[in-house]
Amino acid sequence: MLRFLPLPLLLLLVLLQVSNTAFTQNASIRGFVYEKKTAEPVIFTNVYLKKTTYGAVTDVNGYFLISSIPPGDYILMVTFVGYDTLAMPISLKPGEVINKKLYVEERAIMLAGASISAEKQESKTETKTSVVKITPKQIKQIPTIGGTPDLAQYLQVLPGVIFTGDQGGQLYIRGGSPVQNKVLLDGAIIYNPFHSIGLFSVFETDIIRNADIYTGGFNAEYGGRISSVMDITTRDGNKKHIAGKAGASFFGARLLLEGPIKKQKDDGASSSFIFSFKNSYLSQSSKLFYSYVDKDGLPFDFSDLYGKVSFNAANGSKVNFFGFNYTDKVNYQSISDFHWKSSGGGSNFLVIPERSPVLMMGNFAYSTYTMSLVESDGLPRESSVRGFNGGLNFNYIMGKDEVRYGMEMLGFKTDFNFYNSVGRKILQTDNTTELAGFLKYKMTRGKFLIEPGLRIQWYASLGNLSPEPRLAMKYNINEHMRLKFASGFYSQNLISANSDKDVVNLFYGFISGPDNLPSEFDGRNITHKLQKAQHIVLGFEFDPAKYITINIEGYYKNFSQLTNLNRNKVFDDTEDYWDKPDDLKKDFIIETGNAQGIDISLKYDYKNFYFWGTYSLGYVNRYDGKITYPTHYDRRHNVNLVGSYTWGEDKQWQFDARWSFGSGFPFTKTGGFYGKVTFPQGINTDYTTTNEELGVIYDVINGGRLPTYHRLDINLKRKFQLRETTFLEFDISVTNVYDRKNVFYFNRLEHKVVYQLPVLPSIGMTLTF
């Protein structure tokens, strides 16, 4: 029967058989590391055998596995900054698999340099090319706007990330548009993670356990997007006691509650819940506090609701059920009315087999997203997407090597209603089904880390098969210098439709596999409807001092096939216009493009002071078969400087500052205006008496540049301890300290400019219990 198995599966079975033989001779230790106070997993911490080279770093579930250990007596150690070191004697017999639950306590007195940095250790054992791991602690080290630390504010300071600013909330990662960024929340696909006021995401910071941001070159476990991935994991609720947070500021209010359903006792089974809610009342409060901006108030309203229930077995296996509902509504000074809603839910699980080193994980989720934009022209733009996704993954660790393999499936429906820049209506409804399988193998060979992967993506509704090889490598030159590399092939079926002639894009409609495409592009036949890209990333990490890390990465993304809305459509694609060229009658066009640049970051983190600085140089362009033009997010230079300082006997004071700079975005200038007759009665229209509309003559696509963007934000916090576990924190923040007038939106027909937020002081208060 073996000869009928696919080659990758056959190789995997042989590999597992060889590994099982080794495991019968050696022993393994696996388990979880938890905080003693809350029973929450401690992620990315070092677990190792004292005076040996055997060790591991816990994953996002707090799970670790140390395998291929010779039998004998050892001291098992757990070290992590901010926690007391744990040491435990342990004896291992041949072929034995020991399960451990380890609990660590927060250190009462901080001792500088007493613990090994898991981040430093991970930099040597993981390829970590084009990926940034974010925890709530890091998010809280930048200025909190309106007294609320938020993932959106932290993402804006990452190298290679371009944000449209305070208003709009669009995120562009190394040349990719928002729809080319895959956002996962506990495995569920989130189609828009940012609110219209770009200072806030839909995610509550205090429920985030970890966020992995892949800016390119991601491996085979992720697919369906051609630019980047944002994988966010939420934490479980407190398994020991009821806890929570309540806060309010000029911008809005928030509430978090968590606690046990069944308390954890004596390492037994447990269950818990966590619930978060935040709401903006800025449209009302701004009339009182920010009337100098607009007497009618700042028109931003949003609310975010998330809930999760976790059931944990005694051996660490668990299952979670979660749900979310996010809404957003804004009216830009009567220029445009924009609103959207996102909701969904799902489940994920983790299974630890009794005597096997395999870790099994899975998820299933359903989500929806609807959006609508109406501007002064009265032509609505509407879009919705709804669908499900699920997957099953297996991790198999063999000493310092690791195999990960699995499968995924998803299906979604898109509805789209849009008017292009010449007033032609475009409608599309489509259903999509995708299946995928992947295999990734990480091997350690001396100073080399090699991580090849293969993903097979089957677009069933299109009948297209996309084999996508991936590769990541790292070479540890010495203790302080590392070279890294990543590359891969990527594809996706979901596209966004917006007008390249908008000065700023608010509307991103979703379409899957549009049929109304040209049959050829630039002299070649079009054989599929997918968007495709290839990435190459080369990087260098350097630790010039114990607490300083410098990271340099150069990248190139080749977008070999893209789909865009046809900005030049003037005829319907019917038999009446069979003789017209495709670029004047098709709803969509084919394009190619590329993105290239270099990102530099420097981090210093020691005792009371934290500094983070980044510089990005980037070029992003598109070719539509006739002309090459820069995208509207082709920002050439981007700089971010972040500093945080804590002081006081218990570090109860904290001051944060951030300065951002970006060169101007491209936009299409207005060449002139003309009187446009729309012929509302067709050929029966009397053009001599019909009222004309104002038509726009556009200049070269994205031939102009907006003014440069820069802004300074500061923040001061003071924490008071009321009881052992009860704290009250006051926060004073100022956004746009020197009142820079950064352009946000421009309406051509009414010639109105909307600026981003002016100087906005805010006071906030948070009670933690």
Number of DSSP-assigned strands = 47
Any guess at the CATH architecture of the largest domain? Beta Barrel
- Percent helix, as a range, is under 10%
Low-confidence stretches: 1-9, 18-23, 110-116
Question: Strand percentage, roughly?
Answer: over 45%
CATH class wording of the largest domain: Mainly Beta
Number of domains: 3
List the helices and strands and how they pair.
Elements: H1 7-25, E1 27-35, E2 46-49, E3 55-57, E4 63-69, E5 72-79, E6 86-92, E7 97-104, H2 118-125, E8 131-134, H3 136-139, H4 151-155, E9 161-163, E10 171-173, E11 181-185, E12 188-189, E13 208-214, E14 228-234, E15 243-249, E16 252-262, E17 270-280, H5 282-289, E18 300-312, E19 318-331, E20 336-351, E21 358-375, E22 380-398, E23 401-419, E24 425-445, E25 448-459, E26 464-476, E27 481-492, E28 494-497, E29 509-512, E30 520-521, E31 524-525, E32 531-545, E33 548-565, H6 582-585, E34 588-606, E35 609-623, E36 628-630, E37 637-647, E38 653-662, E39 666-667, E40 670-676, E41 693-698, E42 704-705, E43 709-723, E44 726-735, E45 743-747, E46 752-755, E47 760-768
What does this 3D model show about the protein?
- With 769 residues, this protein is mainly beta.
- Helices cover 6% and strands 55% of the residues.
- It has 3 domains: 24-121, Sandwich (Immunoglobulin-like); 131-668 and 703-768, TonB-dependent receptor, beta-barrel domain (Maltoporin, Chain A); 669-702, no CATH class.
- It is built from 6 helices and 47 strands.
- The longest helix is centred in the N-terminal third of the chain and has 19 residues, at 7-25.
- The radius of gyration is 27 Å and the shape is globular.
- The termini are far apart.
